[in-house]
């Protein structure tokens, strides 16, 4: 079976992909999974530490990053935060063995799109990457349970907690409404009879106006400010 046939049928694979992982066997595993999804070998780059990753992104923009947290020269959260500031719409998926609350919440707060444990099998890793490519925010089931357990401890938002946000256009509000319903960029494009790339541009502007870095945060903040029901 060709690798192309395994690529998501409604997604143009964003490239290049940067894999930040110091473990050789894990790099080989992710290389194989990305190949099965449909990525050509030359579309995948590897860095074994933060310094290499920073040097790479300074020379060439990347479209998606798969990052471990425990790296030889520091914590992958540092890189996530730097990448998120530079590109609010970048796909950043953590694939780590760390499952502490500090690691999970720290990575998500830094701007990770999703979080997956290394112990998951290849199919689960592949499905999580595909979900991210379709605009989702894949969270490992174990991680999701940990987050849900923490929710009662989070104080409720009050109107005085946040400042003003820049007004959304009618089209941006319409797209944000579809995002809140869980539709992917492709599905939104089909609903509005526009291109997926137009949808992506609108979503990037929504992120900028709301000062957020993910779909979940965009919906949450829009509700806080009365932009969504």
Describe the secondary-structure layout.
Layout: E1 17-20, H1 24-37, E2 44-47, H2 50-59, E3 64-67, E4 70-71, E5 74-75, H3 76-86, E6 91-96, H4 101-110, E7 114-117, H5 122-133, H6 141-150, H7 170-180, H8 185-192, H9 196-210, H10 215-224
Parallel strand pairs: 1-2, 1-3, 3-6, 6-7
Antiparallel strand pairs: 4-5
Helix pairs in contact: 1-5, 3-4, 7-9, 7-10, 8-9, 9-10
What does this 3D model show about the protein?
Helices cover about 50% and strands about 10% of the residues. The chain is globular and about 50 Å long. It contains 10 helices and 7 strands. Strands 2-1-3-6-7 form a 5-stranded parallel β-sheet, with helices on both faces. It has a two-stranded antiparallel sheet with strand order 4-5. A hairpin with a 2-residue loop joins strand 4 and strand 5. Helix 7 packs across helix 9 and helix 9 crosses helix 10. The N terminus is likely disordered. The protein is an alpha/beta fold and about 230 residues long. It has 2 domains: about 150 residues, 3-Layer(aba) Sandwich (Rossmann fold); about 70 residues, Winged helix-like DNA-binding domain superfamily/Winged helix DNA-binding domain (Arc Repressor Mutant, subunit A), CATH 1.10.10.10.
């Amino acid at each position: 079976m060709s690798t192309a046939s395994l690529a998501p049928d409604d997604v143009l694979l964003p490239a290049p992909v940067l894999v930040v992982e110091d473990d050789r066997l894990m790099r080989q595993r992710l290389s194989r999974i990305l190949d099965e999804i449909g990525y050509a070998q030359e579309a995948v780059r590897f860095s074994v530490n933060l310094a290499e990753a920073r040097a790479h992104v300074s020379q060439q923009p990347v479209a998606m990053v798969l990052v471990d947290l425990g790296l030889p020269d520091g914590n992958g959260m540092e890189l996530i935060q730097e990448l998120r500031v530079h590109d609010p719409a970048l796909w950043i998926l953590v694939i780590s063995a760390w499952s502490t609350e500090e690691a999970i919440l720290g990575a998500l707060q830094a701007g990770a799109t999703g979080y997956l444990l290394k112990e998951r099998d290849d199919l689960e890793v592949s499905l999580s990457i595909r979900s991210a490519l379709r605009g989702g925010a894949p969270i490992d089931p174990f991680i999701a349970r940990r987050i849900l357990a923490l929710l009662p401890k989070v104080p409720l938002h009050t109107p005085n907690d946040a400042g003003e946000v820049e007004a959304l256009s009618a089209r941006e509000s319409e797209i944000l409404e579809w995002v809140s319903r869980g539709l992917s960029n492709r599905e939104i494009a089909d609903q509005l009879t526009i291109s997926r790339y137009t949808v992506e541009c609108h979503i990037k502007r929504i992120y900028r106006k709301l000062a957020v870095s993910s779909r979940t945060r965009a919906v949450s903040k829009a509700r806080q400010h009365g932009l969504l029901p």
